[in-house]
Amino acid sequence: MPTSDPFDSILTAAGQGAEWAWERLVADLDGVLRGYVRRQGGMDADDLVGETWLQVARGLKRFSGDEAAFRSWVFMIAHHRIVDERRRVRRKPVESVDETVLEEAAPKVGSAESEAVARVVDEELQRVLDRLPPDQREVVILRFVACFGVTEVARIVGKSPGAVSALQRRALKRLEKILGEGGTFLP
User: Fold this and answer.
1) Which pTM value belongs to this model?
2) What 8-state DSSP symbol labels residue 97?
3) What is the pLDDT of residue 1?
């Protein structure tokens, strides 16, 4: 049954298994979701994002809300997957693979120059974000990379909006200090 809101129609179709609707949902969020998972230190971003989408698929028929609530719900699921991964790692450390081996195995896409610039920017951003405490880093990523409001971030991380605002203020002050110390974010 059609609705007046296009997003409701997409959710309904996705809940009924329409491939085009799933493609649309994934296309709208997947890139930002992957960035969030990577910035939060997810060991295997593809695996965590895949687990997130799997849980979304399993719970979609029970979901109710608008597009903003859906985004928030998806990122809350990802947040929980990251927390679960951190717990697993603490219980049973995993031996890491040499990054150069992974890079050599990965398919090459785009020009070498654009990939090099993107990698430098990504590494520099990660280096600066890594100097923040984990809770501040997560708030900054959700607010400024994933573009969530304070209330949505609070719901995702399970804190009050006031606590999220305080974390954001402290994070921005700390970033200002880091960048002022010469932790430049590229010229």
Assistant:
1) 0.64
2) P
3) 43
